[in-house]
Amino acid sequence: MISATLVGLQSVPGLVILYGSIVKKKWAVNSAFMALYAFAAVVICWVVWAYKMSFAHKLLPFWGKAGPALGQKFLVNQALLQFYDDGGLETAMITPFYPMASMVWFQCVFAAITVIILAGSVLGRMNIKAWMAFVPLWLTFCYTVGAFSLWGGGFLFHWGVMDYSGGYVIHLSSGIAGLTAAFWVGPRAKKDRERFPPNNVLLMLGGAGLLWMGWAGFNGRDPYAANVDSSMAVLNTNICAATSLLVWTWLDVIFFKKPSVIGAVQGMITGLVCITPGAGLVQGWAAIVMGILSGSVPWFTMMIVHKRWKLLQHIDDTLGVFHTHAIAGLLGGVLTGLFAEPQLCAMFLPVTNSRGGVYGGSGGIQILKQLDGGAFIIGWNLVVTSIICVAINLVIPLRMSEEQLSIGDDEVHGEEAYALWGDGEKYDSTKHGIGMMYSDDTSHSIKPSTGATQVV
User: Fold this and answer.
1) 361, 355 Cβ separation under 8 angstroms
2) I want to staple 381 with a disulfide (CB 3.0 to 4.6 A). Which of 49, 172, 177, 293 is the partner?
3) Are 8 and 213 in contact (CB under 8 A)?
4) CA distance 275 to 290
5) Do the Cβ atoms of 290 and 273 come closer than 8 Å?
6) If DSSP codes are grouped into helix, strand and coil, which group holds residue 337?
7) pLDDT tens, per residue, the chain with 456 residues
8) Which residues contact 19 (CB under 8 A, 6 or more apart)?
9) Cis upstream peptide for 197 (omega within 30°)
């Protein structure tokens, strides 16, 4: 329950604060509310039908049978994850020492943060009513498929694809789905794409700090117990995140002459994401190597490839979720297939003789398994997210109206993030006479933003 609470705090208030502060001031309320709404909606969908689609009896090789997780007889019993055994599993049943209610909530917060991460790609222009419809549909037809396939006893689970804590189930799926949704929703208003400064960098750092510290629950929870493997996972998580943050910052200094605070946060996130699929499966030195690569490869795709590839320029991924989660998640999955240590694998994985490529033996084929598993998640999310977006757009416009895009929070919600002026008054330029000093679009004769700031 502590791990579940830590992960819940990553979303509420962690990503609520991060999203509300990293965007332009006129989108602060809308961005924060999209995260808050998604969390609440996922909780209800999860207990009514989605949990059992992810962790119960098999319906298809990649999908479980839907059903409620609300009855006392189900929730008060000892937690149980039982997998169909085709003869290749060393452990076909997991029985942690807590009730099923804890397991349901524990898995719920991971489903919730996945949808919230996805939201980062469409901030600043997706119709909030369309988002309300998108959340339950995407959870049902995308997240549950990845969760069952890799964690709940599906075909990738039996094949031995390694995903310790969600590099594929959570990060790769949200990154690909986010990019796909951004394509269908369309770009932000031209003025917003040209200038989109964060409205509160210090508050953004507070949200980022909650995200980092909460990752102890994110990766430390996976053995379903406080044991040696969970301790290794937490330590490796912090090693990789710190290394990645430093590498990203150094690259910003070398190429842009200044250390970007937003860039440092991006580097922290890519490190946390990259280590996730292998947190309890790799040694400490491998976590450093993964941190170096997670701080440099997504930096290269965001700063170099993104600016030169017309397709990526055409798709407006507001917070660069494709780079920080899809690229970093796939990179982490492949590196896990390379560095997974046999003894650590035996402590956690249900498939016998699992090991990474550098340890020889059967490890050579593990990298291929990781690539194939990633390809399935990418393909499924590209196709099904597109179908969901097209279907919603037939009923509810995916994109805000031009008036909403121009005005922002006040038009969409009738509320503003920073609406007070003086002694509890709303700012009125006719009264207070400071013109447009506090406008989002004010120009103060400063140099244009560079590095990660400009990308965002």
Assistant:
1) yes
2) 177
3) no
4) 7
5) no
6) helix
7) 888 899 999 999 999 999 999 999 999 999 999 999 999 999 999 999 999 999 988 999 999 999 999 999 999 988 877 655 555 555 556 777 889 999 999 999 999 999 999 999 999 999 999 999 999 999 999 999 999 999 988 999 989 999 999 999 999 999 999 999 999 999 999 999 999 999 999 999 999 999 999 999 999 987 788 788 899 999 999 999 999 999 999 999 999 999 999 999 999 999 999 999 999 999 999 999 999 999 999 999 999 999 999 889 999 999 999 999 999 999 999 999 999 999 999 888 877 788 999 998 777 899 999 999 999 999 999 999 999 999 999 999 999 999 999 999 999 999 999 866 555 455 666 655 554 444 455 444 444 444 454 455
8) 31, 32, 34, 35, 119, 120, 123, 207, 319
9) no
Query: Hey, what are 395's tokens?
Result: 């009923």
Q: Which of 199, 50, 183 is nearest to 112 (CA)?
A: 50
Token digits of residue 341: 């240590």
CA angle 197, 203, 209 (to 5 degrees): 120
Q: Of 163, 31, 183, 188, which is closest to residue 110 (Cα–Cα)?
A: 163
| Distance in angstroms (rounded) separating the CA atoms of residues 20 and 31 | 5
Residue type, 371: L
How far from the centroid of its chain's Cα atoms is residue 326's Cα?
9
Token reading at 265: 């946060």
**3-class DSSP state of 27:** helix
Spatial CA neighbour of 123 closest among 193, 221, 222, 226: 193
The answer to whether residues 118 and 181 touch, using CB atoms and an 8 Å cutoff, is: yes
C-alpha count within 13 angstroms, C-beta hemisphere, residue 128:
17
Nearest to 346 by CA among 169, 237, 228, 236: 228
How big is the CA angle at 416 (ends 412 and 420), to the nearest 5 degrees?
155
Which CA distances in Å does 69 have to 130, 224, 406?
27, 19, 43
CA pair distance 277, 330, nearest whole angstrom:
9
**Residue 252 CB-half CA count within 13 A:** 26
pTM (2 decimals)?
0.91
Contacts of 84 (CB under 8 A, 6+ apart): 58, 92, 153, 158
Length of the chain: 456
